[in-house]
Amino acid sequence: MANTLVVVAHPDLSSSRINAAWYKAIESLPGVNVIDLYGRYPDGKIDIVAEQRLIEAHDRIVLQFPMQWYNCTPLLKQWIDDVFAAGWAYGGGRAVAGKTLCIAVSTYSKASDYQKGGRYGRTLDELTSPFEVLALRVEMLYQPGFFLSGLESLSDEELAASTRQYRNFVASFDYQCSLEKA
Predict the structure, then answer these.
(1) Which end of the chain is less enclosed by CB atoms within 10 A, N or C?
(2) Nearest of 121, 176, 113, 119 to residue 147 by alpha carbon
(3) In which region does residue 62 sit, left (phi positive, over 0), alpha (psi from -120 to 50) or beta (all else)?
(4) Can you name the residues that pair with 86 across neighbouring β-strands?
(5) What is the DSSP string of 14-45?
(6) Neighbours of 50 (CB within 10 A)
């Protein structure tokens, strides 16, 4: 198993049903280091050097977050802006080149909303394409995302299935699955 860092970026993990379950499912996986970004930086002041060292120590980075206004959470955006700095990740630096980046995203809206003819007229792959472009820009490999939609009506059984699938996704570089409720 590769050395994986999972950056969980939920503004209030203690009140989360999905992201908390995912976190709990992977926190004891061998070779996986899970951090709660909001718990780590409640004041929003990110220790850039510490985060860069953490990334350097891992082969694969998973960014886990609930979609908010068709984007990642604010602190995760700040973390990306601050940590993936010129001279370190690009512009003369290649600290992340060759590492793998992937995302794990939960959405309240149902999967059918995220289709060309759906409510939002965009797929989740399209809405999250900036993460793929980030990976390209800093010479990382991009692994397709893990998506869970339809949280508004997700049963406990469906959450348990998603949690098992997410655990497999984090544990394996080549795992590809998307559990979406129509």
Answers:
(1) C
(2) 176
(3) beta
(4) 90
(5) GG-SHHHHHHHHHTT-TTEEEEEHHHH-TTS-
(6) 11
The region, left, alpha or beta by phi > 0 then psi within -120 to 50, assigned to residue 121 is: left
The whole-angstrom separation of Cα 157 and Cα 20 is: 16
* Largest Cα–Cα separation, the chain: 48
pTM of model > 0.90: yes
Sign, CA torsion 96/47/4/176: negative
Percent of the chain at pLDDT above 90?
Answer: 91
| Paired tokens of 114 | 């995220």
**For residues 56 and 95, is the Cβ–Cβ distance under 8 A?**
yes
Structure tokens belonging to residue 13:
């993990």
User: What does the pLDDT look like over 58-71, one tens digit per residue?
Assistant: 999 999 999 999 99
